Amino acid sequence: MKLSPRTATAVLAACAALGLSPAAQPAGADAPPPVDKTIPKTALPAAAASLDEKDADLGEAVAYCQHSPDACTFTADRRTYSYYEKARTVGEAYVNCTRGTLERERSVTFRDDAFDSVNQAQDGLFPHRTLAHPKATSAMAEQFERGVESSSGKWTWTRTEKSTVEVDIKPGQASWVEVQPARKRVYGSFRATGPDAPPFQIDVIVDSPAAAPSSRVYQRTGPMSSAEKQRCMADRRAAAARH
Length: 243
Known about the structure:
23% of the residues lie in helices and 36% in strands. By secondary structure, it is α+β, with helices and mostly antiparallel strands. Mean pLDDT is 81; it is low at 1-29.
């Protein structure tokens, strides 16, 4: 179909307004598939291996990448993102059964580790639960770190955070601490390198504690639960035994 000069001008103007090229392919042609951010870190989609763009045995592909730190390279794709986990409670809950305000200083310590879709897909590929371990790293962990640290800074496989909070607990209230760990989920591929290397590719997901920003720590206070109220109203065991 041949466009008139006026129609062609209108099409170009519309494309410019949308930030598109007139010859642009459909959005899904080269773009990675959309990310499902509801997937938990403990149930990542299984890693997949290919050889010459055909399905390959994951164990064979991993063994090749594992035989040398330079056997494969890792490249992250555009689906990579940072996020905060759902809040979870850490430590004990303090319950004030007294008639006065309680002042407390408490330490908060929590640890987060990495998860990856390779180990979740097949047990026994590594001598530990994930690509890397504080006491036993792997060739693929080194390849991964080189691939991501150039763009996102130092990578962390595990992180322990410690902090101290002071809290005043009013009579009839309970106090507890919740944390929201900061994490980063990386989508990408390991590819065999070298002129004589078999064209292995392993598509993986790695979910790890984020180096930044810091995790969120919430100091919470609120009314006691029914069970806590009953416990506060109960007699002391020694006093009850004398009756």
